User: Which sequence fits this backbone?
């Protein structure tokens, strides 16, 4: 069964319409994928900012601890070099 020229035209049009519909449907799924990726990137950005704040807080705490150690270091050295005491009794 061969198609005539008159029957071939609507078949071509239908084929082109079918290919176009599949192509446009594929683009719609990319929008959903991009939205998902953007959402994931936003979540990661929030986590990175939180980690950076935690690191900054830990750095400040470490600096305060170092300052405290510097303050008591002189006292410790004086106690280590002080002459020993004689026990009573």
Assistant:
């Amino acid at each position: 069964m061969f198609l005539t020229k008159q029957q071939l035209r609507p078949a071509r049009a239908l084929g082109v319409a079918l290919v176009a519909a599949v192509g446009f449907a594929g683009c719609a799924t990319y929008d959903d994928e991009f939205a998902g990726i953007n959402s994931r990137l936003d979540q990661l950005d929030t986590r990175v900012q939180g980690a950076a704040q935690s690191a900054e807080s830990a750095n400040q705490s470490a600096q305060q601890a170092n300052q405290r150690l510097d303050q008591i270091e002189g006292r410790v050295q004086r106690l280590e070099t002080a002459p020993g005491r004689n026990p009573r009794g």
